[in-house]
Specification:
Blueprint lengths: L20 H4 L4 H6 L1 H4 L1 H38 L10 E2 L6 E2 L2 H32 L2 H13 L5 H27 L19 H24 L4 H9 L4 H29 L3 H6 L18 H7 L7 H34 L1
Antiparallel strand pairs: 1-2
Helix pairs in contact: 4-13, 5-8, 5-10, 6-8, 7-8, 8-10, 9-10, 10-13, 12-13
């Protein structure tokens, strides 16, 4: 006698606790919408916050640039001198005549000299702390270097005026006597007895101010060099310097360049210290490191009392616009250099 066929029941699936995360997640749209996991409120909130923050920063920078342009245009229209090629600065009367040449020279010269002095020293300190110094010495030494960033700008200015300026004058005179045939080492303010407020002194002070910035970023980059690469180089018989040259420096090159550009941006905008160090002179700058004068930022701070005149204030805002664009270009260049190094 034949028994009727029983309907087959599907084999029981794996226990709930044995299911993988992919199997445990339902694909039913209604269930996804109704479950807390499907709504992903936290993800949406975080995404909205991140996007809003990014948009806010971009909008803020655009608003600053727009403000500078709008405020500078009336003064530039009334300007009787070539703004980009003239070095005269006469804004006390209704007949405006101002140019950015001398201010731009002092700004670029002090920042470039500071970068030239600070980059090799920062590189040496970063390599020493990450590759050579014992752990017991590296940590406190790094704290000491980082403390340089906490010193107020006005203290650096006082130090430059009272201590470093007189101490560097014999060095400046020696450089002028040896390399005076080059315009960059021309007489400048060296012909004025007791004058120590020069681009040379300002650049040295700025180099100390940006030293902890470049060192700190470079140290963090070098410290993240893959350990297996270092150990592999040592296993092949490389010396410590060969490990640094073939492994650490190639890995951290882009970060080091970015750190240098970050320090350069800091130097371009420094105000108080340079306001105290640089001594304005009536004579036209000779494009020498031993010139006095003012940077863009220190000039704006020096003549802030004239901002009650909207037209005259527009001249300083136009100078600030040049500094804004210059800083933006430096940061964009740093990003491009870092990206190019990483691509290679």
């Amino acid at each position: 006698m034949r028994h009727p066929k029983r309907p087959r029941t599907p084999a029981p699936g794996p226990a709930e606790e044995d299911r993988t995360p992919e199997e445990a997640i339902s694909t039913d749209p209604d269930e996804l919408r109704s479950s807390p996991r499907g709504r992903r409120a936290g993800d949406l909130l975080f995404r909205g916050t991140a996007v809003s923050s990014g948009v806010f920063i971009v909008a803020l920078i655009a608003a600053i640039g727009f403000f500078l342009v709008v405020q500078a245009v009336p003064a530039l229209r009334s300007n009787e001198a070539n703004f980009l090629l003239s070095g005269v600065w006469e804004v006390s009367s209704d007949d405006l005549a101002f140019g950015i040449t001398h201010l731009l020279w002092a700004t670029v010269a002090t920042s470039a000299l500071a970068l030239l002095l600070a980059m090799p020293v920062s590189l040496g300190i970063a390599l020493f702390l990450t590759q050579y110094a014992p752990a017991a010495l590296a940590r406190p030494f790094a704290y000491v270097v980082d403390l340089l960033a906490a010193v107020p700008s006005i203290v650096y200015g006082l130090w430059g005026v009272q201590v470093l300026g007189p101490a560097l004058r014999p060095v400046a005179e020696r450089l002028h006597a040896t390399l005076g045939f080059l315009p960059i080492f021309g007489t400048g303010n060296l012909g004025e007895p007791g004058s120590t407020g020069t681009i040379f002194v300002a650049g040295v002070v700025l180099s100390v101010m940006i030293l902890p910035i470049i060192t700190g970023v470079s140290r963090e980059i070098f410290d993240r060099t893959p350990t297996d690469q270092i150990e592999g180089a040592l296993a092949l018989g490389a010396t410590k310097w060969e490990v640094v040259r073939t492994t650490v420096l190639p890995f951290g090159r882009s970060g080091y360049v970015s750190a240098a550009m970050l320090g350069l941006g800091r130097a371009l905008g420094e105000t108080v210290a340079l306001y105290m160090i640089l001594s304005g002179t009536g004579a036209a700058p000779q494009l020498s490191l031993f010139d006095g004068g003012s940077t863009i930022a220190s000039k704006i701070a020096l003549d802030s009392s004239e901002f009650n005149n909207p037209t005259a204030a527009g001249a300083y805002i136009a100078a600030g616009l040049v500094l804004f664009v210059l800083t933006f270009v430096v940061n964009a260049l740093a990003r491009a250099i870092a990206s190019g190094k990483q691509v290679r």
